Amino acid sequence: MGNVYGYVRVSTKNQNEDRQLISMREMNVPEDHIFVDKQSGKDFERPQYKKLLRRVKEDDLIYIKSIDRLGRNYSEILDQWKMITKEKKVSLYVLDMPILDTRREKNLLGTFISDLVLALLSYVAENERNLIRQRQAEGIAAAKARGVHFGRRPDPLPENFYEVWKLWKMKKISVSEAAKRCGMARTTFFEKARAYRED
């Protein structure tokens, strides 16, 4: 058996990696063998992950907390899994899914079972993410149809807006004068006037 390493990833700088770090310590991974990235898994431009891959040698072992720490879609996870286990001949152990432990049964059947389970789990994980995105899009569309507005609420119109708008509409004052009377920028007044007319 070679050296033992741990890889930890959180999607943003605000997320906490403590849960993953505790798991690594429970597996007796030395502190200087734990590599932590704080960024999205949407690609593999992750400095600590790259550093880990440069450091590991054949027969080393990498612990990860869950399979999605390797990436965020089916093909990327499979590519990384194959590159680590087949090309680099480094073992992988997924702590949340002990069946994904490539140290066990390094024969053809053991490898086949591990790869099959990985492919299935990666597919399920990606499918679930796609369903979540679809549900979010449907929820937003339904909310918009009910008249729910997203983003910052627009500032209320000044009390004199209707009178100023009427004067501007009757061409008695210019857009610049109307905006000045309402305490707005010219473009803001014009946008509000257009929206007001449409309402």
Give me some keywords for this one.
about 200 residues; alpha/beta; Rossmann fold; 2 domains; elongated; DNA integration; Resolvase-like_N_sf; Site-specific DNA recombinase
In short:
50% of the residues lie in helices and 10% in strands.
Characterization of the model:
- The chain is of the alpha/beta class and 199 residues long.
- The protein has two domains: 4-128, Resolvase, N-terminal catalytic domain (Rossmann fold, 3-Layer(aba) Sandwich), CATH 3.40.50; 161-198.
- 50% of the residues lie in helices and 10% in strands.
- It is built from seven helices and four strands; from the N terminus they run βαβαβαβαααα.
- Strands 2-1-3-4 form a four-stranded parallel sheet, with helices on both faces.
- Helix 3 (74-87) packs antiparallel against helix 4 (108-145).
- The longest helix has 38 residues, at 108-145.
- The mean pLDDT is 82.
- One of its GO terms (molecular function) is DNA binding.
- The active site is at residue 11.
- Keywords: DNA integration, DNA recombination, DNA-binding.
- One of its GO terms (biological process) is DNA integration.
